[in-house]
Amino acid sequence: MRARGVLMSKTKIVVIDNDKKAVWELSKSLECEENIEVVSVEENGIDGLEAINKYNPDIVIMELLLTGIDGFSIIDYIKECKYDIKIILTSVINQQNIVREAFDKGIDYFAVKPYDVNTIVNRVKRIIGENKNSETFSAIYSVDSIIANSLIQLGIPASLKGYRYVATGIKRATEDQGVLEGVTKILYPDIAKEYDSTPQRVEKAIRHAIEVAWNKNSDCDLKNKFCVNLDKGRKRPTNSEFIATMSQYIINSYR
Fold first, then answer.
1. How far apart are CA 74 and CA 14, in angstroms?
2. 10-residue block means of pLDDT along the chain (255 residues)?
3. CATH code, residues 11-131
4. Which of 91, 176, 183, 99 has its CA nearest to residue 144?
């Protein structure tokens, strides 16, 4: 990030969110990183804006729905002032038009709540080490939003335990289709390692998430994409079929 003198200073972060528990867990995890300093934690948009002006942080992590001043207004202010600040936006709202507007305004990452703290920390570390411009960030990280929106459309809520496992599996497959050749031996262990779980629990949680989606009566266009691949008598896809079909759908969405 920005250099001061000869030495590189710590990356300064301002967190703006009224979810005290989530903020405490996130701040604690960020502070464990040697080169990161959380300089301010605020619960509303007005105090958050003051903290931004006071500390001129490298990264702002904030909720979209803030009291006083909302997240979009703060983003507009940051851009109008031409601050060199990376922005991570979080929200329970996962509508595609909202996500698209956020990236159009210049954010660097969008996280759907409830998010995994380790995921946010890893994104922060990527931003710190990333030399690409914000437009490239938008192109990369909007994949997460498309995956999240698609899973919710299918009827897999973000609160479900298997949600983050299946979302991670789909993203891995979009990045490397080769993992589909070894879902049990490669993909499950990889996901389990990231979330401190076991391959067996990952497999079971993903299977349950698919069952939840197919037990619902929704007849969305996305779910119909799986019908052509199902044998007669089978009501839902296997884990491998689901991840493969979803990853191909995401890839095609970016063509």
1. 12
2. 50 94 92 92 95 95 94 94 93 82 89 85 84 43 73 83 92 86 91 93 95 72 59 76 88 63
3. 3.40.50.2300
4. 99
Alpha-carbon distance 109 to 88, whole Å?
Answer: 5
| pTM of the model as a whole | 0.54
**DSSP states along the chain:** --B-SSSBPPEEEEEE-S-HHHHHHHHHHHHTSTTEEEEEEESSHHHHHHHHHHH--SEEEEESS-SSS-HHHHHHHHHHTT---EEEEEES---HHHHHHHHHHT-SEEEESSPPHHHHHHHHHHHHH--S-HHHHHHHHHHHHHHHHHHHHHT--TTSHHHHHHHHHHHHHHH-GGGGGGIIIIIHHHHHHHTT--HHHHHHHHHHHHHHHHHS----HHHHTTGGGPPTT--S--HHHHHHHHHHHHHHHT-
Q: Where are the domains of the chain?
A: 11-131, 152-253
The residues, any chain, with a CB within 8 Å of residue 150's CB and separated by 6 or more, are: 222, 246, 249, 250
Handedness of CA 128, 158, 113, 38 (dihedral sign): negative
pLDDT of residue 223: 64
CATH architecture for residues 152-253: Orthogonal Bundle (1.10)
Task: Specify the residue for token string 């993203």.
Answer: 171
